[in-house]
Amino acid sequence: MAKHATNPWVVLVLICFAQFMVILDATIVNVALPSIQKDLNLTEGNLQWIVNAYTLVFGGFLLLGGRMGDLLGRKRLFLFGLVIFTGASLLDGLASSEGMLIGARSLQGLGAALISPAALSIIATTFKEGAERAKALAVWAAIAIGGSAVGLVLGGVLTQYFSWPWIFFVNVPVGIVTFLLSFRLIPESRDEQVERNYDIAGAVTVTGGLMALVYAIVDAQQAGWGSAKTLAFFGLAATLLVAFVVIELRTKAPLVRLSIFRIRSLLTANIAMFLAMSGMFAMFFFNTLYIQRVLGYGPLKAGIAFLPFSAGIMVSAGIASQFAPRLGVRPVAAAGFILSTAGLVLLTQLPVHGSYLTNVLPSIALSSLGMGAVFMPLTLIATTGLEDADQGLASGLFNTSQQIGGALGLAVLSTLAASKTPSVNPTTTQLVTGFHWAFGAGAVVMVVALGVMVALLRSHHVAEIEAQAATGEPVAVGA
Prior knowledge:
Radius of gyration: 21 Å
Number of strands: 0
Number of domains: 2
Largest sheet: none
Oligomer: single chain
CATH superfamily of the largest domain: MFS general substrate transporter like domains
Helix content: over 70%
Low-confidence stretches: 472-479
Shape: globular
Structural class: mainly alpha
């Protein structure tokens, strides 16, 4: 563990400021999408890429970001990521064309991919394993998930009272201040034992493969699932992802040391989080559309409607951090999955002539309480009991599972909803029918995530983690 003179909770505050911006920008654009589409003349298909260009590059380069943090220094990479992210935010706000905005969003995703794993690794090396780290991770969980809901509120305020470029400009002063304070106060740490090798080929193939896969899913609704174009992109995705696995098996210093997946707790936490975010990420997208296009809310009112989600996440993450050491991480996460599923099932009953208080708020409350209870235990399982040298890789894998799961979930559920909705002038009833299918599929995926956790994670896989969380004693987790 790195020595530091700064109060570790001051370090956590700075880290959370940066992570808040990263998560914020995954959702802040949602309520601004109609304004962006109108100003830049985006098509319906390309509009999705304002969200997914950021998410995919973010998820695809998280693994490289985690590796670079271990080798170059977590603080150094964190600061470098802040510079890229802040500069890209400025370019986003200045964008005058579809191509410029999508390109700048991709660059912003790259900055986020450097910030996020470095930030989680700094937490892991600043707070000792056990109760202290569990408390820090509870704060992290509240910021990471709650920031998504706050992004919708802030996006509504800035879009309605200023203009959509301000959803990006707001990052610039925050990024500059965070950089200056972090440069002075955050301690440096790195793995001094590992050979300096960065596996660029691995990062390019996995990112390219994932982007090709999402593009194939998104475009299939228009081009057709059996079209030559769709099949070609699926083939390209498969080729690149297979190439990634081959590269990782053969290179001396792989981006992902595949043997790390022998740690059952880490493997299960990543699969479960991938599926959970696949089911939940699109909830923001479709709920925003329902609230604005069906209930008739403006951007600000729609954003405020999601405040209970942020509050619920913060409350449940704090409760989970208290109960996980007492009841066990598996029961707490299982309860979270059940609550989240119940929230999505309620959304399948949204009526055409509904109301926020009666139809939307109960589902938001259940989903938020559930996801806070899921996120905190899974984060603890995925990052506890590892050597400092593996913290960057573990953090990158866990963040990748969230982002790629969310991107693929949005692509699949959007395609499913679109397949149930006419492409030209759909009625309100037809829109709501498409939303129902998306929410129902999300609930099914959430149940599958719960099943994976129950099937793969036995009590002996987490016994040492639970003992450590309760007593504060450091342990090493085996396969």
